[in-house]
TrEMBL record:
Organism: Neobacillus driksii
Record-given protein name: D-galactose/methyl-galactoside binding periplasmic protein MglB
Keywords: Calcium, Metal-binding, Periplasm, Signal, Sugar transport, Transport
Cell compartments where the protein resides: Cell envelope
Record text on subunit structure and interactions: The ABC transporter complex is composed of one ATP-binding protein (MglA), two transmembrane proteins (MglC) and a solute-binding protein (MglB).
Phylogenetic placement of the source organism: Bacteria, Bacillati, Bacillota, Bacilli, Bacillales
Source organism, top-level taxon: Bacteria
Pfam families xref list: Peripla_BP_4
């Protein structure tokens, strides 16, 4: 959908503002009417997304809107990365008659605050994407989680790196010391995905018997622009010593690529292996062009759909899994699997974002 050529960061920003255009100027958007009747006739589900201006979450949001269409009145709010604002939105959603809540926390530690509000009115809460502590989820019978097993993405990314390194190390081990010198762009600190990916990717590469040197690790807050800035600084500082760029998500991988391009990479034989997570369409394009080694599919479509399906069932007083094929694990979580994506199986990524 996003046809970027040059000026990637700019086009990403433009693309996400196009996606956001429907919600422009307001912080709430509802699913549009379908043939089946007005939204207001449908059971109300109150939802928040931690910020609309997050590349991956914009795909989750779209999937939620599609799943809600004609089934529930989805009152969807942009929490604008502000936890206090989100708490106010939850108050408003409850006041407006939401029968269940679908919450993408700003701060993963704020789950209890949301539960305290919902519990008073006996309203079920489906958290998604930012996993609350298991103990908090356990504390409220009507609380659930839809997301992934965070560590899995780090393990798959690590395996991908190890395979690619083994196959290319003659070229990629630039200083010939047999070790992999990397820089790592971390997501939001404290975010279960960011913490797990950062730990498991490196652990996995090492387990595969590859020695590593960490030249730099810092947060790019999931954000392309911030990642470009970081990468600019790292290229200036480490230049030729960097042999691999590991990013906790594709947004930051794309930001790093923009920086690397400025520094002359990806033309002639100047190359840098870059990996991300999410397998969003913009990243799939980079994989096809050979500017990204691979990514790990974070299934936005299924996570968005599952969130709305559980929330709709809950709002209707049904078992949350009724009519679905999802399963809950011991921590009342639906976990959608990650899939390693390279050029070889890129169609899986494309299909997931269709
Ligand atoms: C992660 C995703 C990131 C970012 C984050 C927001 O699962 O990989 O790109 O969207 O969620 O919480
Ligand atoms: Ca080396």
């Amino acid at each position: 959908m996003f046809k970027n050529k040059k000026g990637l960061v700019l086009s990403l920003t433009v693309a996400s503002s196009i996606l956001l255009a429907t919600g422009c100027g307001s912080t709430e958007s509802s699913s549009t009417d379908s043939g089946k009747g007005k939204d207001s006739d449908l059971v109300a589900v109150g939802a928040t997304i931690y910020k609309f201006d997050d590349n991956f979450m914009s795909y989750v949001r779209r999937a939620m809107e599609t799943a809600a269409d004609g089934k529930v009145n989805l009152m969807l709010n942009d929490s604008q990365n502000d936890q206090a604002k989100q708490v106010e939105q939850v108050d408003t959603l409850i006041a407006k008659g939401a029968k269940s809540l679908a919450i993408n926390l700003v701060d993963p530690k704020a789950a209890q605050t949301i539960i305290d509000k919902a519990k008073v009115k006996d309203i079920p809460v489906i958290f998604f994407n930012k996993e609350p502590d298991a103990s908090v989820l356990k504390g409220y019978e009507k609380a659930y989680y839809v997301g992934t097993t965070s560590s899995e993405s780090g393990i798959l990314q690590g395996e991908l790196i190890a395979k690619a390194w083994e196959a290319n190390k003659e070229k990629w081990d630039k200083n010939g010391d047999g070790k992999l010198q990397y820089v790592l762009l971390k997501g939001e600190p404290g975010h279960p995905d960011a913490e797990a990916r950062t730990k498991y990717v490196v652990d996995t590469v090492k387990e595969k018997g590859i020695e590593v040197d960490e030249l730099a690790l810092d947060t790019g807050m999931w954000d392309a622009m911030k990642a470009t800035e970081k990468m600019d600084a790292w290229i200036a500082k480490y230049n030729e010593s960097i042999e691999f760029v590991i990013a906790n998500n594709d947004g930051m991988a794309l930001g790093a690529i923009a920086s690397l391009e400025k520094a002359g990479y990806f033309s002639g034989d100047k190359f840098m292996p870059v990996v991300g997570v999410d397998a969003i369409p913009e990243a799939l394009e980079m994989i096809e062009k050979g500017k990204m080694v691979g990514s790990v599919l974070n299934d936005a479509k299924n996570q968005g759909a599952a969130t709305v399906q559980l929330a709709a069932n809950a709002a209707n007083g049904k078992d949350v899994l009724e009519g679905t094929e999802w399963k809950l694990d011991d921590s009342k979580a639906v976990r959608v699997p990650y899939i390693e994506i390279t050029k070889d199986n890129i169609q899986i990524g494309k299909d997931a974002y269709k």
